[in-house]
């Protein structure tokens, strides 16, 4: 068995069958699909059983609800393929999109294959926007040679998701690399950074193979971050995974700013004050003040300019809502800006 596709399935009765069908039509010839029903109560379990009965290469395993990381770990223990691919239950791939990827796995046998992905935004069931994220590199590479490029890969969002990579299973199992089940934010990045050290050969494929379906309810990391009282607690978990990495502080500072911005987007004035206090203490503890002194937004947080942060946040929200209204009702104006000549709706 070449590839085991692991799908945590929770409350996804409306999407799981389409997801499985897209994988089966992706061009993979030697694949198994392992669905982990994580204690769903909406009929997902029955759908998974039905799908498994329909396709010999599909298995379904039921467990009590334990979260996405626990479901992925269970799938990793159950997988039989040489490679594993973690897949979300509402995402998809295009027909025959994996033919080249499978050929690369067979011929080059990399420890990890990394490919592009798209973020598909939907409104009322219709896609109105697609943003593509492609690796900045193409072809084979040694992770040792990329040690000075890790910050660039982080900036290009190559390290953020588990879904845009296929990994040799033995590297994870033999090195006892499992997802942390005590994290519910950035657990993909923490795991990717941790296993990166155990992969010698990486192959980059600049194709947007994985189609990530953006939630229609407008949910964002800012609201989820409200469940974390202090951002440095999350940074500590990421920092441990970056131990020994030359670009550690650059990556951590960039992530710290991202987390602060996202939390401020959903926070009350009192919570913004906490974000600012935590940010200042964290920057001072890591001696990173010289790195932010020329960054206007970072200094607003460091100096706790609460009113300025609230005003900027509200302006950004208005612009974001206006831009999304235009994209949903008129079309993606970026296409006109870049002169593609395509101006119809998706």
Task: Summarize this entry quickly.
This protein is 44% helix and 20% strand. It is an alpha/beta fold. The protein folds into two domains: 212 residues, Spore Coat Polysaccharide Biosynthesis Protein SpsA, Chain A (Alpha-Beta Complex), CATH 3.90.550; 107 residues, no CATH class.
Description:
This protein has about 350 residues and is α/β, with parallel strands linked by helices. It has 2 domains: about 210 residues, Spore Coat Polysaccharide Biosynthesis Protein SpsA, Chain A; about 110 residues, no CATH class. Helix content is about 45%, strand content about 20%. The chain is built from 15 helices and 10 strands. Strands 1, 2, 3, 4, 5, 6, 7, 8, 9 and 10 form a 10-stranded mixed β-sheet that branches. Strand 1, helix 1 and strand 2 form a beta-alpha-beta unit. The longest helix has 24 residues.
